[in-house]
């Protein structure tokens, strides 16, 4: 991604009951005040900087178990 741009990382998780979906960053925190997760579980990162680079993990959890997916961001 280009520094200063907006990045969207999708996470499709379905189930009955609907799983609880959470995003986190390996070895760091999500950018304070520059991220949000919408109703489709897409993580939006605004005005990305080189410090935002890294691996982001989407975790979906329900009574049936847990699933996780990762995305690597390079700025």
TrEMBL record:
Top-rank lineage group of the source organism: Eukaryota
Protein name: ROBO2 protein
InterPro entries: Cell_Adh-Cytoskel_Orgn (IPR050958), Ig-like_dom (IPR007110), Ig-like_dom_sf (IPR036179), Ig-like_fold (IPR013783), Ig_I-set (IPR013098), Ig_sub (IPR003599), Ig_sub2 (IPR003598)
Gene that this polypeptide is encoded by: Robo2_3
Span of domain Ig-like: 1-75
Entries under Pfam families matching the protein: I-set
Annotated compartments: Cell membrane
Assigned keywords, A-Z: Cell membrane, Disulfide bond, Glycoprotein, Immunoglobulin domain, Membrane, Repeat
């Amino acid at each position: 991604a280009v520094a200063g741009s907006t990045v969207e990382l999708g996470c499709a998780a379905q189930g009955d009951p609907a799983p609880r979906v959470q995003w986190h960053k390996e070895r760091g925190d999500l950018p304070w005040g520059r991220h949000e997760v919408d109703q489709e579980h897409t993580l939006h990162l605004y005005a990305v900087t080189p410090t935002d680079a890294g691996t982001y993990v989407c975790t979906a959890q329900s009574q049936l178990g847990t699933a996780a997916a990762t995305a690597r961001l390079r700025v």
